[in-house]
């Protein structure tokens, strides 16, 4: 009788352990344990063109701090609002602002040609040295995957929109991920975050 009870307890314990393993596996696949992006999961190789039509890759981020933001030039509010906030944050950094560049990557390659990117960057009045990157649909998709960016076309016809992630990514002068600049931060808050990163905080 005692052996039977012991065997039942062992089987129950094994079933519980198996259930925990399966549950943990499902939670991992859903991203429960991932939380904020880490340095190992944000950034990486890409091949795009800038607003002059010059081919560039991930090494274009080397040498300065970069804020990488994915959006599109026909965006009605989020994209212009974000890059304007970044531009103001750059001004607030004073002399340190010369060590920062804004990198705007299009998720709308069908409309965002290099010429369109150039015109939009100029219209936004972004600081000298800012980059507008675009490419083929496959190139853009690869860059978005590297930065864990979501985007999808919404609607039909020439006035379609593109839903996309709203966070910006601060990359260090070696092109490595440092931190997320969340959507909705004020220029002052962005500048504080960038200063902290430059100090090594």
Describe this structure in words.
- Strand 8 (168-171) and strand 9 (177-181) form a beta hairpin.
- It contains five helices and nine strands, in the order αβββαβαβαββββα.
- It has a five-stranded mixed β-sheet.
- The chain is an alpha/beta fold and 201 residues long.
- The protein folds into two domains: 1-35; 47-199, Glutaredoxin (3-Layer(aba) Sandwich), CATH 3.40.30.
- Helices cover 39% and strands 20% of the residues.
Strand order of the largest sheet: 5-4-3-8-9
Give the strand tally.
9
Order of helices and strands: HEEEHEHEHEEEEH
Overall pLDDT confidence: 85
Low-pLDDT residue spans: 10-38
| N→C terminal distance | 64 Å
User: Which secondary-structure class do the elements indicate?
Assistant: alpha/beta
Q: CATH homologous superfamily of the largest domain?
A: Glutaredoxin
Give the helices and strands, then pairings.
Elements: H1 2-30, E1 47-49, E2 55-57, E3 65-71, H2 78-92, E4 100-106, H3 114-124, E5 131-133, H4 137-146, E6 151-154, E7 161-164, E8 168-171, E9 177-181, H5 187-199
Parallel strand pairs: 3-4, 4-5
Antiparallel strand pairs: 1-2, 3-8, 6-7, 8-9
Features:
201 residues, alpha/beta, Glutaredoxin, five-stranded mixed beta sheet, 5 helices, globular
């Amino acid at each position: 009788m005692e052996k039977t009870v012991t065997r039942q307890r062992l089987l129950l314990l094994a079933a519980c352990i198996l259930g925990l393993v399966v549950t943990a596996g499902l939670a991992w696949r859903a991203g429960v344990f991932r939380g904020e992006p880490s340095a190992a999961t944000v950034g990486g190789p890409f091949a795009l063109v800038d607003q002059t039509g010059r081919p560039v890759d991930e090494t274009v981020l080397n040498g300065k701090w970069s804020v990488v933001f994915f959006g599109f030039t026909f965006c009605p509010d989020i994209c212009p609002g974000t890059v304007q906030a970044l531009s103001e944050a750059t001004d607030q950094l004073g002399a340190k602002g010369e060590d920062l560049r804004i990198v705007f990557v299009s998720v709308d390659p069908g409309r965002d040609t290099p010429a369109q990117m150039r015109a939009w960057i100029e219209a936004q009045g972004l600081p000298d040295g800012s980059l507008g990157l675009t490419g083929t649909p496959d190139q853009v998709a690869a860059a978005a995957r590297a930065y864990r960016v979501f985007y999808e076309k919404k609607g039909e016809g020439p006035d379609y929109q593109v839903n996309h992630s709203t966070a910006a990514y601060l990359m260090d002068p070696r092109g490595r991920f440092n931190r997320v600049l969340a959507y909705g931060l004020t220029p002052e808050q962005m500048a504080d975050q960038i200063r902290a990163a430059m100090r090594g905080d």
